[in-house]
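Quick review question:
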């Protein structure tokens, strides 16, 4: 069985944004999963995601709207942020840079990852990326 070229290209593009020095922050909490009732339906539309490791904690608030969703990204310890929304399709990217929290307005649905560059008060920077989640 052959894999279509567009599927192969999307799979490769999904990992092209990450360098070897970029830390991957695993998903620690997803309110969408916590809010599911016995029938499997979510009880609310807004969502909180928490990613982190022993050095960085990233909180993402998602407010779903039609056709735009709002993502509010905050980080601890506090640092100047550059946040890039990454999708498997390389033509769908959005980059915002500011002091936290960072607000992104997106129309993309499906798998996303956030590539975050943190700049501390001394000017040194580090990068981390969230694990993939479906919005």
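Suggested answer, residue by residue:
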């Amino acid at each position: 069985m052959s894999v279509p070229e567009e599927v192969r290209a999307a799979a490769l593009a999904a990992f092209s944004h990450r360098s070897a020095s970029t830390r991957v922050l695993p998903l620690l909490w997803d309110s969408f999963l916590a809010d599911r009732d016995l029938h499997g339906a979510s009880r609310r539309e807004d969502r909180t995601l928490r990613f982190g490791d022993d050095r960085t904690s990233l909180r993402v608030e998602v407010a779903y709207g039609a056709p735009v969703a709002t993502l509010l990204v905050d980080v601890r310890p506090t640092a100047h942020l550059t946040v890039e929304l990454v999708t498997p399709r390389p033509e769908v990217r959005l980059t915002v840079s500011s002091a936290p929290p960072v607000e992104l307005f997106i129309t993309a649905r499906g798998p996303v990852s956030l590539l975050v560059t943190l700049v501390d008060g001394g000017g040194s920077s580090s990068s981390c990326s969230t694990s993939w989640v479906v919005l």
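Why it works: The chain has a mean pLDDT of 79. Helices lie at 5-15, 31-34.
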